[in-house]
Write a structure and sequence with these properties.
About 30% of the residues are buried. The radius of gyration is 52 Å and the shape is elongated. The longest helix has about 35 residues, at about 410-445. The termini are far apart. It is built from 21 helices and 25 strands. Helix 12 (about 320-335) crosses helix 15 (about 370-380). The protein is about 35% helix and about 25% strand. The chain has a 5-stranded antiparallel sheet with strand order 2-1-5-4-3, with helices on both faces. Strands 7-6-10-9-8 form a 5-stranded antiparallel sheet, sandwiched between helices. The protein has a 5-stranded antiparallel sheet with strand order 12-11-15-14-13. Residues about 1-15 have low confidence and may be disordered. It is an alpha+beta fold.
Length: about 700
């Protein structure tokens, strides 16, 4: 019923038909006469307001009594405004029903004027919108009860709905957001992942879910689902700040544990803790700092002095700065003054921290030198010096530096660094103690092994290599001495066991064998047999492998340039012979004899071979050819192959033995190794210079 009409009478039939149509549609109609103020309703209007037609006065005041009291002032104002104008009339109101329910009505009307434009009647229609309003309220209630933020926008990015949770999450009221552009209300989203994903959802027409951090107020992490709807965009978002922080804490803990595990593996994987601690720099950078230097405190020198400090490892996260750091690490110790941070931490045993201005602070404790210029290039902003503590002493220092683009260390990083320093300190101290014990053990071992003789026709080289993982004296031994008739005796042996008892047993077995062989000219088999008897008589309980050899010549052999080697083995690995042509032979008998100490009266076999000048004979203990993952057969084959390769290089005897040990042994040998090597020289010419001077006991026949 919009538009301007006239007061002319219409067609009665048309009016009747319109009335029937309106009634059938359930629409209530009303008419207010401007002149009299009287109100006229159709039947449906009475039903909608729950009013009986009988006795209705037609007064507006009476009609208002059937409207919800809270809505009357607004409806009355709307009616008055409509009666005072010639425009449209629109209003909504609630009607309380006798059964306690509430009906929602929507009314629309238009002022009818005469030909001169004067208002005559306000006519209109009213319909029941209760179902629509209840549905809308249910939706609104649902949106308000959501535990996540809900924000709806139109195609122009202006916000049309904001629920209560969205108000709390954004820290903005609805009044401050509704009708505003998203980009105006939240400028920090412009040019970020937020804008990128929102526009992606609108372009694709598909929902997009992502997590992002909003950096400004309210400074939260949110999980957002952007859903295109009705040409606009609806956002569902959840505050996940606590979850992200928990994840970051867990990730930081995982990084800490991974770093500590790597440090522990590095420090415990070898007894060479100095090398392991030097590599520590590459583990803590960049996890804890931009760059660092690891310093070792040597045992020698006065305590607390820079003279016993030595930088052993350093690393920089920026590859371009590593050359500068190399130069600085080489020069900084001599340039330190007595009040330097490093010496302060060394003397007090406590950490030293510089939270800002570290470049200038370090320059002040450096004597005028190139180190000052280099620290300016490295430009640290903050630093921490952590002592590496051993048992009651500082064994090293860890200095961590951060540049201006990285904040000083957090409390968590400081705790991790302290833990790393503690582990490194114990590793260095353990290594120091182990090294002292091992050196003592090796020295004692070597003190039990005398220098070999050097007959004119033979050069003898001996070597002893202790096991890497044991500081005890071992049971391996070698010997080389001459008998009264001028023959040379070679012995290699290994007492079962790796402890001080084995070392004592080795000393006994070696002394017995040496004493028996040195006073007579008996052959190897007889020497081993008599040694077995003495060990049994003394009730030593010693069990050992041994190989004894005797180098001898008669006039005929000497004239022909030959030497006879007689040998006997008590369960020991076979000797190796390298011929002048480079071929390699293992001297193994038909069957192995029993070890010493098993059956005292056992018969011993003796074997012999004639060797020419230039021949090399090698006796060794089983540590050279055996390992946990390598059976003895494979070790013997590898020994032959290695000796064959080395023989082709025409090496001196010393070099041959040294290179053989280097190739055959792992970096950390599992067992002790003793070696006796003999090279036969031509007696008709001068003794080769590389063989050194001959050395024989006085009073023995010329050989």
């Amino acid at each position: 019923m919009a538009g301007t009409g006239t007061a002319a009478d219409g067609d009665d039939a048309g009016r009747a038909l319109l009335a029937l149509s309106v009634d059938a549609a359930g629409i209530g109609t009303f008419e207010v006469d401007v002149a009299t103020g009287r109100l006229t309703w159709n039947r449906r209007m009475f039903e909608l307001l729950g009013v009986a037609p009988e006795g209705f006065s037609g007064e507006l005041a009476e009609a208002y009594r059937h409207i919800h009291p809270d809505d009357v002032p607004r409806v009355a104002a709307d009616v008055e405004a409509a009666l005072a104008s010639t425009g449209a009339y629109t209003t909504e109101y609630r009607v309380p029903l006798p059964d306690g329910r509430t009906r929602h009505l929507s009314a629309r009307g238009q002022m009818i004027t005469d030909a001169a434009g004067n208002p005559l009647r306000l006519v209109g229609a009213t319909h029941d919108v209760t179902a629509e309003r209840e549905s809308s309220e249910r939706i609104r209630a649902a949106l308000e009860s959501l535990a996540i933020g809900y924000l709806a926008m139109g195609a122009d990015w202006r916000m049309t709905y904001v629920n209560a949770r969205a108000e709390r999450l954004t820290g903005r009221s609805r009044d401050a957001l509704l009708g505003r552009s998203l980009w105006e209300a939240f400028p920090a989203t412009v040019g970020t992942v937020f804008e990128e994903r929102y526009r992606q959802a609108v372009r694709s027409g598909e929902a997009v879910t992502f997590e992002a951090h909003y950096p400004r107020e309210p400074d939260v992490w949110v999980e957002v689902q952007a859903v295109p709807e009705n040409g606009g965009l609806t956002l569902y978002f959840l505050d996940i700040t606590d979850r992200r922080r928990a994840q970051e804490v867990a990730a930081e803990a995982a990084r800490r544990h991974a770093l500590l595990a790597a440090v522990t593996e590095q420090l415990t994987g070898t007894m060479d803790a100095e090398r392991a601690v030097a590599y520590l720099a590459q583990l803590v950078v960049p996890a804890l700092a931009d760059w660092c230097i690891v310093t070792l405190v040597d045992d020698e020198g006065p305590a607390g002095s820079r003279r016993n400090l030595r930088d052993i490892g350093w690393w920089h996260a920026d590859e371009a700065m590593r050359t500068t750091l190399d130069a600085y690490a080489e020069r900084r110790i001599p340039a330190l003054t007595e009040d330097s941070f490093l010496l302060r931490a060394l003397v007090t045993g406590r950490s030293t921290t510089v939270d800002s201005g570290a470049t200038a602070a370090v320059q002040r404790v450096l004597a005028p030198s190139q180190a000052r210029d280099l620290i300016a290039e490295l430009a640290p902003e903050s630093m921490v010096v952590l002592p590496l503590r051993g048992r009651g002493r500082t064994v090293g220092l860890l200095t961590l530096f951060n540049g201006s683009t990285r904040a000083s260390m957090t409390a968590a990083e400081r705790d991790t660094a302290t833990d790393v320093a503690g582990r490194a300190g114990l590793a260095l101290d353990n290594s120091r103690l182990y090294r002292q014990q091992r050196d003592l053990a090796a020295g004692l071992q070597r003190s039990l092994l005398t220098r070999p003789v050097q007959p004119d026709h033979a050069q003898i080289v001996v070597r002893y290599t202790p096991a890497a993982e044991a500081a005890d004296v071992g049971g391996d031994w070698y010997d080389a001495f001459m008998q009264p008739d001028g023959a040379t005796v070679l012995v290699i042996g290994d007492v079962i066991g790796h402890d001080t008892e084995a070392a004592a047993a080795m000393g006994q077995a070696r002394t017995v064998l040496r004493s028996l062989a040195a006073v007579d000219h008996e052959g190897p088999a007889e020497v081993l047999r008599r040694t077995d008897e003495v060990l049994e008589t003394l009730r030593t309980g010693i069990i050992a492998t041994a190989l004894a050899g005797r180098l001898e010549q008669d006039e005929d052999l000497r004239r022909r340039g030959l030497t006879r080697l007689r040998w006997s083995s008590a369960g020991h690995p076979p000797a190796a012979v390298v011929a002048p042509d480079g071929s390699v032979q293992l001297l193994a008998g038909e069957k192995a004899d029993l070890l010493l100490g098993v059956v005292p009266d056992t018969a011993r076999q003796e074997h012999e071979v004639v060797l020419g000048y230039g021949t090399t004979v090698l006796l060794y203990t089983d540590g050279l050819i055996e390992a946990r993952d390598q059976p003895i057969e494979e070790g013997l084959q590898r020994l032959q192959e290695t000796l064959t390769d080395l023989a082709a290089d025409d090496l001196s005897l010393d070099d041959l033995v040294d290179q053989l040990l280097e190739r055959m042994l792992p970096p950390q040998p599992e067992d002790d190794v003793a070696v006796v090597a003999v090279r036969l020289h031509d007696q008709h010419g001068p003794r080769p210079a590389e063989a050194g001077s001959d050395r024989t006991p006085p009073g023995l026949p010329d050989t």
